[in-house]
Amino acid sequence: MAVIEFKQVSYQVGDKKILNQLDLEVADNDYLTIVGLSGGGKSTILTLMAQMISATSGEIDFQGQNVMELDPVKYRREVSYCVQRPALFGETVEDNLKFPAEVRGVEYNRDRALELMARVQLPASMMDQKVIEVSGGERQRIALLRNLMYLPKVLLLDEITTGLDAENKAIVWNLIRAVHQEEQIAIVSVTHDQQEIENAEKVIAVVDGRISR
Ligand SMILES: Nc1ncnc2c1ncn2[C@@H]1O[C@H](COP(=O)(O)OP(=O)(O)OP(=O)(O)O)[C@@H](O)[C@H]1O
Fold this sequence. Notes:
One of its GO terms (biological process) is phosphate ion transport. Keywords: ATP-binding, Cell inner membrane, Cell membrane, Membrane, Nucleotide-binding, Phosphate transport, Translocase, Transport. The protein has a domain at about 1-85 and about 150-210: P-loop containing nucleotide triphosphate hydrolases (Rossmann fold, 3-Layer(aba) Sandwich), CATH 3.40.50. About 35% of the residues lie in helices and about 30% in strands. The protein has helices at about 40-50, 70-80, 95-105, 110-120, 135-150, 165-185, 195-200, and strands at about 1-15, 15-25, 30-35, 55-60, 65, 80, 155-160, 185-190, 200-205, 210. The strands form 2 sheets. It has a 6-stranded mixed β-sheet, with helices on both faces. β7, α6 (about 165-185) and β8 form a beta-alpha-beta unit. α3 (about 95-105) packs parallel to α5 (about 135-150) and α5 (about 135-150) runs parallel beside α6. The two termini are about 20 Å apart. Bound molecules: adenosine-5'-triphosphate (ATP). Adenosine-5'-triphosphate binds next to β2 and α1.
Protein backbone atom coordinates (compact mmCIF):
# COMPACT_ATOMS: atom_id res chain seq x y z
CA MET A 1 0.00 0.00 0.00
CA ALA A 2 1.14 3.56 -0.70
CA VAL A 3 2.02 5.46 2.44
CA ILE A 4 2.37 8.71 0.46
CA GLU A 5 0.82 9.24 -2.94
CA PHE A 6 1.08 12.29 -5.21
CA LYS A 7 -1.82 12.57 -7.66
CA GLN A 8 -1.14 15.06 -10.45
CA VAL A 9 0.64 17.38 -8.04
CA SER A 10 1.77 20.75 -9.35
CA TYR A 11 3.60 23.46 -7.48
CA GLN A 12 3.88 26.93 -8.91
CA VAL A 13 5.21 30.21 -7.54
CA GLY A 14 3.95 33.17 -9.57
CA ASP A 15 4.44 32.17 -13.20
CA LYS A 16 7.13 29.65 -12.39
CA LYS A 17 6.05 26.01 -12.64
CA ILE A 18 8.31 24.15 -10.25
CA LEU A 19 6.52 20.78 -10.30
CA ASN A 20 4.28 19.74 -13.12
CA GLN A 21 1.45 17.22 -12.63
CA LEU A 22 3.55 14.76 -10.73
CA ASP A 23 2.34 11.23 -9.95
CA LEU A 24 4.45 9.48 -7.35
CA GLU A 25 4.00 6.66 -4.85
CA VAL A 26 5.99 5.86 -1.76
CA ALA A 27 5.12 2.33 -0.65
CA ASP A 28 5.09 1.25 3.00
CA ASN A 29 8.60 -0.09 3.07
CA ASP A 30 10.19 1.81 0.21
CA TYR A 31 13.64 3.32 0.26
CA LEU A 32 13.32 5.88 -2.49
CA THR A 33 16.28 7.93 -3.67
CA ILE A 34 15.49 11.13 -5.57
CA VAL A 35 18.18 12.38 -7.91
CA GLY A 36 18.48 15.00 -10.62
CA LEU A 37 20.20 18.20 -11.61
CA SER A 38 20.21 21.20 -9.34
CA GLY A 39 16.98 23.17 -9.51
CA GLY A 40 14.94 20.24 -10.89
CA GLY A 41 12.48 20.24 -7.99
CA LYS A 42 13.77 17.50 -5.67
CA SER A 43 13.67 19.53 -2.45
CA THR A 44 10.25 20.87 -3.40
CA ILE A 45 8.95 17.29 -3.52
CA LEU A 46 10.27 16.68 -0.01
CA THR A 47 8.87 19.91 1.43
CA LEU A 48 5.49 18.99 -0.06
CA MET A 49 5.74 15.53 1.51
CA ALA A 50 6.65 17.21 4.80
CA GLN A 51 3.67 19.59 4.35
CA MET A 52 5.91 22.60 4.85
CA ILE A 53 4.23 23.88 1.68
CA SER A 54 0.98 22.88 -0.04
CA ALA A 55 0.44 21.80 -3.64
CA THR A 56 -0.93 24.45 -5.99
CA SER A 57 -3.07 21.74 -7.60
CA GLY A 58 -3.49 17.99 -7.37
CA GLU A 59 -3.70 15.89 -4.23
CA ILE A 60 -1.26 14.37 -1.76
CA ASP A 61 -2.53 11.38 0.22
CA PHE A 62 -1.09 9.85 3.37
CA GLN A 63 -2.27 6.27 3.91
CA GLY A 64 -5.15 6.91 1.53
CA GLN A 65 -6.30 10.19 3.11
CA ASN A 66 -5.89 13.66 1.67
CA VAL A 67 -3.21 15.42 3.77
CA MET A 68 -5.26 18.61 3.70
CA GLU A 69 -7.79 16.84 5.93
CA LEU A 70 -5.22 15.63 8.47
CA ASP A 71 -4.05 17.34 11.64
CA PRO A 72 -0.65 18.86 10.70
CA VAL A 73 0.85 18.21 14.15
CA LYS A 74 -0.04 14.51 14.02
CA TYR A 75 1.07 14.30 10.40
CA ARG A 76 4.55 15.64 11.21
CA ARG A 77 4.98 12.92 13.81
CA GLU A 78 4.35 10.30 11.15
CA VAL A 79 6.30 11.97 8.38
CA SER A 80 9.54 13.26 9.81
CA TYR A 81 11.78 15.65 7.91
CA CYS A 82 15.55 16.02 8.32
CA VAL A 83 17.50 18.68 6.45
CA GLN A 84 21.11 19.39 5.59
CA ARG A 85 22.89 21.39 8.33
CA PRO A 86 19.98 21.24 10.77
CA ALA A 87 19.68 23.62 13.69
CA LEU A 88 20.02 22.23 17.18
CA PHE A 89 17.72 23.57 19.89
CA GLY A 90 18.20 24.59 23.49
CA GLU A 91 21.50 24.62 25.30
CA THR A 92 22.74 21.03 25.44
CA VAL A 93 22.73 17.96 23.22
CA GLU A 94 20.26 16.29 25.58
CA ASP A 95 17.81 19.21 25.24
CA ASN A 96 17.44 18.09 21.62
CA LEU A 97 16.70 14.51 22.52
CA LYS A 98 14.17 15.61 25.16
CA PHE A 99 12.38 17.86 22.69
CA PRO A 100 10.28 15.16 20.93
CA ALA A 101 8.87 14.01 24.31
CA GLU A 102 8.18 17.61 25.35
CA VAL A 103 6.13 18.37 22.24
CA ARG A 104 4.17 15.15 22.75
CA GLY A 105 3.62 15.89 26.43
CA VAL A 106 5.06 12.51 27.48
CA GLU A 107 7.91 11.44 29.72
CA TYR A 108 11.40 11.62 28.22
CA ASN A 109 13.00 8.21 27.70
CA ARG A 110 16.69 8.74 28.52
CA ASP A 111 17.55 5.07 27.89
CA ARG A 112 16.23 5.35 24.36
CA ALA A 113 18.29 8.52 23.83
CA LEU A 114 21.45 6.80 25.11
CA GLU A 115 20.81 3.74 22.97
CA LEU A 116 20.45 5.92 19.85
CA MET A 117 23.55 7.95 20.77
CA ALA A 118 25.56 4.73 20.99
CA ARG A 119 24.28 3.60 17.60
CA VAL A 120 25.82 6.66 15.98
CA GLN A 121 28.98 6.39 18.07
CA LEU A 122 28.33 9.38 20.31
CA PRO A 123 29.38 8.90 23.94
CA ALA A 124 26.89 9.30 26.79
CA SER A 125 29.09 12.10 28.13
CA MET A 126 28.09 14.19 25.13
CA MET A 127 24.55 14.57 26.49
CA ASP A 128 25.67 17.57 28.56
CA GLN A 129 27.77 19.15 25.81
CA LYS A 130 26.70 22.60 24.65
CA VAL A 131 25.14 22.58 21.19
CA ILE A 132 27.44 25.41 20.07
CA GLU A 133 30.41 23.13 20.77
CA VAL A 134 29.44 20.13 18.60
CA SER A 135 31.02 19.50 15.20
CA GLY A 136 29.06 19.49 11.92
CA GLY A 137 29.08 15.69 11.75
CA GLU A 138 27.94 15.37 15.36
CA ARG A 139 25.22 17.96 14.81
CA GLN A 140 23.85 16.02 11.84
CA ARG A 141 23.81 12.80 13.86
CA ILE A 142 22.11 14.43 16.87
CA ALA A 143 19.47 16.02 14.65
CA LEU A 144 18.78 12.65 13.03
CA LEU A 145 18.35 11.05 16.46
CA ARG A 146 15.81 13.75 17.28
CA ASN A 147 13.81 12.51 14.26
CA LEU A 148 14.08 8.94 15.52
CA MET A 149 13.30 9.25 19.26
CA TYR A 150 9.75 8.29 18.21
CA LEU A 151 9.71 6.27 15.05
CA PRO A 152 7.89 7.92 12.15
CA LYS A 153 6.24 5.99 9.29
CA VAL A 154 8.26 7.96 6.76
CA LEU A 155 11.62 9.65 7.11
CA LEU A 156 12.41 12.43 4.62
CA LEU A 157 16.09 13.22 4.16
CA ASP A 158 17.26 16.26 2.22
CA GLU A 159 20.94 15.86 1.35
CA ILE A 160 21.75 15.13 4.96
CA THR A 161 25.25 13.81 4.34
CA THR A 162 26.39 16.63 2.05
CA GLY A 163 29.56 18.11 3.47
CA LEU A 164 30.23 15.23 5.86
CA ASP A 165 33.41 13.17 5.71
CA ALA A 166 33.35 9.48 4.73
CA GLU A 167 33.31 8.25 8.33
CA ASN A 168 30.39 10.46 9.37
CA LYS A 169 28.50 9.53 6.21
CA ALA A 170 28.93 5.83 6.93
CA ILE A 171 27.68 6.23 10.52
CA VAL A 172 24.60 8.14 9.38
CA TRP A 173 23.76 5.71 6.54
CA ASN A 174 24.24 2.67 8.75
CA LEU A 175 21.62 3.96 11.17
CA ILE A 176 19.22 4.91 8.38
CA ARG A 177 19.54 1.52 6.68
CA ALA A 178 19.08 -0.20 10.03
CA VAL A 179 15.87 1.64 10.96
CA HIS A 180 14.57 1.07 7.44
CA GLN A 181 15.19 -2.67 7.65
CA GLU A 182 14.42 -3.31 11.32
CA GLU A 183 11.54 -0.92 11.86
CA GLN A 184 10.04 -0.93 8.33
CA ILE A 185 10.26 2.85 8.05
CA ALA A 186 9.87 4.23 4.52
CA ILE A 187 12.75 6.50 3.52
CA VAL A 188 12.72 9.22 0.87
CA SER A 189 16.17 10.63 0.34
CA VAL A 190 17.22 13.50 -1.93
CA THR A 191 20.88 13.25 -2.76
CA HIS A 192 23.76 14.13 -5.05
CA ASP A 193 26.03 11.60 -3.33
CA GLN A 194 27.37 9.15 -5.91
CA GLN A 195 27.95 6.37 -3.42
CA GLU A 196 24.44 6.67 -2.02
CA ILE A 197 23.01 6.62 -5.55
CA GLU A 198 25.02 3.51 -6.45
CA ASN A 199 23.70 1.72 -3.36
CA ALA A 200 20.11 2.89 -3.81
CA GLU A 201 17.17 0.46 -3.88
CA LYS A 202 14.85 2.57 -6.06
CA VAL A 203 15.92 5.72 -7.86
CA ILE A 204 13.65 8.45 -9.21
CA ALA A 205 15.14 11.14 -11.43
CA VAL A 206 13.47 14.54 -11.40
CA VAL A 207 14.06 16.81 -14.37
CA ASP A 208 12.37 20.19 -14.77
CA GLY A 209 9.62 19.39 -12.31
CA ARG A 210 8.78 16.02 -13.81
CA ILE A 211 9.82 12.46 -13.20
CA SER A 212 12.08 11.35 -16.00
CA ARG A 213 11.58 7.69 -16.96
N1 LIG B 1 9.35 29.64 -3.14
C1 LIG B 1 9.96 29.68 -4.31
N2 LIG B 1 9.91 30.76 -5.09
C2 LIG B 1 10.49 30.79 -6.29
N3 LIG B 1 11.21 29.77 -6.81
C3 LIG B 1 11.31 28.67 -6.07
C4 LIG B 1 10.71 28.55 -4.79
N4 LIG B 1 10.99 27.31 -4.30
C5 LIG B 1 11.75 26.70 -5.23
N5 LIG B 1 11.94 27.51 -6.29
C6 LIG B 1 12.68 27.17 -7.53
O1 LIG B 1 12.21 25.91 -7.98
C7 LIG B 1 13.26 25.15 -8.57
C8 LIG B 1 13.36 23.81 -7.87
O2 LIG B 1 13.90 24.00 -6.56
P1 LIG B 1 14.32 22.77 -5.63
O3 LIG B 1 14.97 23.35 -4.41
O4 LIG B 1 13.16 21.88 -5.44
O5 LIG B 1 15.41 22.06 -6.54
P2 LIG B 1 16.39 20.85 -6.24
O6 LIG B 1 16.22 19.88 -7.34
O7 LIG B 1 16.19 20.36 -4.86
O8 LIG B 1 17.80 21.58 -6.37
P3 LIG B 1 19.20 21.33 -5.61
O9 LIG B 1 19.72 20.01 -6.10
O10 LIG B 1 20.04 22.48 -6.08
O11 LIG B 1 18.93 21.38 -4.14
C9 LIG B 1 14.50 26.03 -8.45
O12 LIG B 1 14.67 26.68 -9.68
C10 LIG B 1 14.17 26.99 -7.33
O13 LIG B 1 14.86 28.21 -7.49
